[in-house]
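Batch manifest, entry 17 of 40.
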Amino acid sequence: MTTTTALVVTRHGGPEVLALEEREVPDPGPGEALVEVAAGGVNFVDAYKREGIYRMSPPYVQGFEAAGTVRAVGEDALVSVGDRVAWSMVDGLHAGLVIADSARLVPVPDDVDLETACAAVLQGMTAHSLVTGCYPVGEGTVALVHAAAGGVGQLLTQMITSRGGTVIATAGSHAKLEIARSRGASELINYSETDDLAGEIKAAAKRLGAPKGVDVAYDGVGKATFDASLSSLRPRGTLVLFGGASGQVPPFDLQRLNAGGSLFVTRPSLAHYISEREELMMRGRELFDDISSGRLDIAIGGRYSFADAAEAYRALEGRATTGKLILVS
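Output type: structure tokens
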């Protein structure tokens, strides 16, 4: 048995509760692989768990996304030593060496570097599931994307426009809106400068030829934007609530869906869109194909050492970032 350095949540709280510790790593068992981690993704879900919003029992190794190289395999593993892989939706990935279920490892093509793969795997497959599984974006779709300069927001904007859709982007500054524009957004709204966000979204939709409202609203901000998202939908439109960066949405009267025009609301988790290995491999393959072909650009907003992980999470939780933050070995 060997040891590795791991990023540990010592108790519930802010980024200050993170600490580096030495942990033992067992040999891979049947169907498992030992992966040397090259990079780990920094995500809001890690913060939610650390704060106790999502139940976890400290102390535990943090990390929900990583990429690296297979160094050893157990019997009947589905990968080989030397394979380059990425994976997510599993806890405990922020460590130098990690034991992984080989069935959950997504192959990384040779022309995609491991830092890019790490930055893409969780948010990229999330965005892919949102535009294919939650709402089938296609030619002529008019979509609202909140926080469009963030990691998922940039990917959503690119995926929507590459499928023939049009994006109304919101963000909290003009600089961030310019990032959204560079990713293909047609209409830009600074939600820090308006008292009527829903009205501005509806006006933007009308300019895009959708006088009844947007077809779909992608909302990862949550509490601060939920009402505007719901109000912006056309009859039978869909609100995809996939996060709560501003806070969790409180319970609401379902009759609002009827009054708004038989609306749909979904609160998806990527786990339910990659639960079968075939679907996981499909999403990973299409994601990395888009990166390899240049249809999808992955913006890495910052690289931090594992020792500086607390600073990375302060930047993320302060909403002072654009693109994806990663921890590198």
